[in-house]
Amino acid sequence: MPLLRSRVESANRADGPFPLNNLPYGVFSVAGEAPRCGVAIGEMILDLAACEARGLVDAGGTFAQPQLNGFMALGRARWEAVRARLTALLAEGASEDVPLVAMAGARLHLPIRVTEFTDFYASKHHAFNVGALFRGPENALPPQWTHMPIGYNGRASSVVVSGTPIRRPMGQVRGEAGPEWRPCRRLDLELELGAVVGADSTMGERIGVEQAEAMIFGYVLLNDWSARDIQAWEYQPLGPFQSKALGTTIGPWVVTQAALEPFRCAGAERVNPLLPYLHEARPGLYDLEIGWTLNGQVMGRTNYNVMYYSSAQQLAHHSSSGCPMRVGDLLGSGTISGPGREQTGALLEMTEGGKMPVMVNGASRSFLEDGDEVGLFAQARGEGYRIGFGPCTGRILPTRP
Ligand code: CA
After folding, report:
1. Torsion sign, CA atoms 394, 253, 223, 261
2. Do you find a cis peptide bond into 237, omega within 30 degrees of 0?
3. Ligand 1 mean position to 67 CA, how many Å?
4. Same domain for 148 and 289?
5. Do residues 228 and 171 touch, judged by C-beta distance below 8 A?
6. Which of the ends of the chain has fewer CB neighbours closer than 10 A, N or C?
7. Is the Cβ–Cβ distance between 169 and 240 less than 8 Å?
8. What is the DSSP secondary-structure string of 110-165?
9. CB atoms within 10 A of CB 2
10. Which of 109, 141, 161 is the last residue of a domain?
11. Which residues, 6 or more positions from 369, have their beta carbon under 8 angstroms from its beta carbon?
12. Could you read off the pLDDT of 187-234 as tens digits, one per residue?
């Protein structure tokens, strides 16, 4: 599909993140007014609450809410109807007056009320590299890894929107003469894509992969900040705890599954066949360039198509015990790393556990220092257009005194 031309001229640039083909949803506010739902188009935001108030679009009044949960809960048929209506309203030559706000003058908020947060571990390169650093190359990949998506139940309470500062945590770590209590010295990022679940399931219900995919509303950039020294001391036998609870940053724009559909592709080659409950009838990943910057310098760059499990497979596995899912459930993909050092999505891997520091604007880094700013980026390349995700940044503040 080529670029769909829009009445908003800034949406017609070949290299802009928000053409008419994209239409990502977010929550914004301007000058003292209440946050409400909007959609990004070029350098503007279409005020969806105002659209509803004028009768231009019908989402049952949910666009006046300060998160997308109400709209998502209306279901897939309404998502499709609204997308078609917005595409018509914003198309080149459309005549109805529409309420647009300059993005530069708007504040962007957390787009969803995050009801639960689960983080997975689905890049084989990342799982191997990190496993080798923690346990040696012989024991790097756990025996179940190629058979099922590995994850842990994270914290929804510390998920924040892009631009929110992240404070270096205190923690208990392994010291020379026993455990120590001190500020984290190995603070890291994790480059991930978060799937936003837009439908509920009931307790006891098992969700098939196909149904799981239909429940995913869209995707956000996601940085799973990680305290590696705290993680190394605490993670066995139940997995990460305080090392991952310090904060998770997501981007302000939810890029819909519909916008990513033209970029659907297969993922990493299977090591062994999956059990039937994880079979995918069609490929569930996307050809999506994704990477990260440190203090403005591009550090790692890879593609979401390196992943071994799709979000739909992760969701299906998540419900396999009968665990119910909720509108606003956030599923982190796991760190996205390709095979090469410059394709890694975390400093732990890039610096081989801190042993091989990298240069950032002339300064050496093994892990993040106070004042450092990490940014994530992603884009899919279409014919004469791109699907972008907007910013996903966070700056490190010193430990709270
Ligand atoms: Ca993670």
Report:
1. negative
2. yes
3. 24
4. yes
5. no
6. C
7. no
8. -SS---EEEEE---HHHHHHHHHHHH-GGGSS-TTTTTS--EEE--STTEEETT--
9. 9
10. 109
11. 396
12. 999 999 999 999 999 999 999 999 999 999 999 999 999 999 999 999
| Contact by Cβ (8 Å): 302, 336 | yes
Ligand 1 center to 226 CA (angstroms)? 8
Please state, in angstroms and rounded to a whole number, the distance separating the CA atoms of residues 66 and 198. 16
CA dist., res. 387 & res. 121, Å (int): 25
Maximum pairwise Cα distance, the chain:
73
pLDDT digits (tens, 9 = 90+) for 132-168: 988 899 999 999 999 999 999 999 999 999 999 999 9
How many angstroms does the Cα of residue 366 sit away from the middle of ligand 1? 19
- Residue 319's φ and ψ, nearest 5 degrees, are -95, 0
Long-range contacts made by residues 239-244, C-beta under 8 angstroms, separation at least 24?
239/152, 240/152, 242/169, 242/171, 242/172, 243/171, 244/119, 244/152, 244/154, 244/155
Q: How far is CA 149 from the centre of its chain?
A: 17
pTM (predicted TM-score): 0.97
Candidates 221, 391, 393, 210; CA nearest to 304 is 221
Q: DSSP secondary-structure letter at 137?
A: G
What are the tokens at 112? Answer: 């969803």
Tens-digit pLDDT profile for residues 334-384: 999 999 999 999 999 999 999 999 999 999 999 999 999 999 999 999 999
Residues with Cβ–ion distance below 5 A, ligand 1? 119, 190, 224
Q: Quick one: DSSP state of residue 254?
A: B
State residue 199 phi and psi, 5-degree precision.
-145, 150
**Number of domains comprising the chain:** 2
Lookup: tokens for 268: 């990493």
* Full residue range of the structural domain in which residue 372 is found: 117-397
CATH of the domain at 30: 2.30.30.230
**134-141: long-range contacts at Cβ-Cβ below 8 A with a sequence spacing of 24 or more?**
134/232, 134/235
If one counts every other C-beta atom within 10 angstroms of the C-beta of residue 229, the result is 23
Is 4 among the domain residues? no
> Burial level of 88, CB count in 10 A (0-12/13-18/19+)?
exposed
Residues forming the active site = 126
Within this chain, do residues 75 and 196 fall inside the same structural domain, yes or no? no
Total H helices, total E strands in the chain: 10, 27
Instruction: Burial-class residue 149 by CB neighbours within 10 Å (0-12, 13-18, 19+).
Output: buried
